[in-house]
Design brief:
Layout lengths: L1 H14 L4 H15 L17 H16 L4 H16 L4 H8 L1 H5 L2 H14 L9 E5 L11 E6 L1 H8 L7 H13 L2 E4 L11 E7 L2
Antiparallel strand pairs: 1-2, 2-4, 3-4
Helix pairs in contact: 1-4, 2-3, 3-8, 4-9
């Protein structure tokens, strides 16, 4: 939790300077309960499940702010600020590495890694986790040789279980940002959080 909690602390201090201790305490308390449902992710064989711990803390803050009576728009604004800061490159080297992703995908070592990733993401190590299909056909992926269909979304499952499904779409908004950081344009026709049968991730290399 320590890796990302500082980003939450920073925004909570900005928005609630006089109530910081209470807001962060309530968030931590909700996280303690919610994280029981994502504990499996730390040992899951599916690498996509690793993002569920962050999602649990994200949901804990949403629950805290909702209980404070904050509007959906306010909660969305605060949460997007936090997660956007979290995914930003931490230094120039980190930014450079992110930009190498499209180049790596088209190489033979990249394709080997993608095939290994494909085997792991199709495994349902927990009914609460993700299931994804990795697309390697170049015709289906704008010539890149990499795309993703999320068939079961662990984040949607978690938010649904705790009756906060309508907030899951906030995390979907960040996918565009993370794609751009890698020099890619995200092409997506739908998400599970918005009622689609799957989340289809396709990418184009930005010129």
């Amino acid at each position: 939790m320590n890796n990302y909690r500082k980003y939450f602390i920073r925004s909570i201090k900005d928005y609630y300077p006089g109530e910081f201790d209470q807001v962060i305490a309530n968030t931590d308390n909700h996280y303690a309960t919610i994280s029981v449902d994502t504990k499996f992710a730390s040992t899951s064989g599916n690498p996509i499940d690793k993002r569920l711990d962050f999602s649990a803390y994200f949901l804990a803050l949403i629950k805290t702010l909702d209980e404070k009576g904050e509007s959906y728009d306010t909660i969305r604004k605060i949460c997007l600020e936090i997660v956007t800061a979290y995914v930003q490159p931490k230094n120039r080297v980190h930014a450079f590495v992110k930009r190498q992703v499209p180049k790596l995908i088209s190489t033979w070592p990249g394709q080997i890694l993608i095939r290994a990733f494909q085997k792991k993401t199709m495994v349902n190590t927990s009914t609460e986790g993700f299931i994804a299909h990795i697309i390697t056909d170049r015709q289906e992926t704008f010539g890149i040789g990499y795309g993703v269909d999320i068939l079961e979304c662990g984040i949607c499952k978690l938010f649904t279980k705790h009756n906060y499904f309508r907030y899951a779409t906030i995390l979907c908004e960040v996918d565009q940002i993370t794609s751009e950081l890698a020099g890619l344009k995200l092409i997506r026709t739908g998400t599970i959080a918005n009622g689609a049968a799957r989340c289809d991730f396709r990418f184009k290399v930005e010129s």
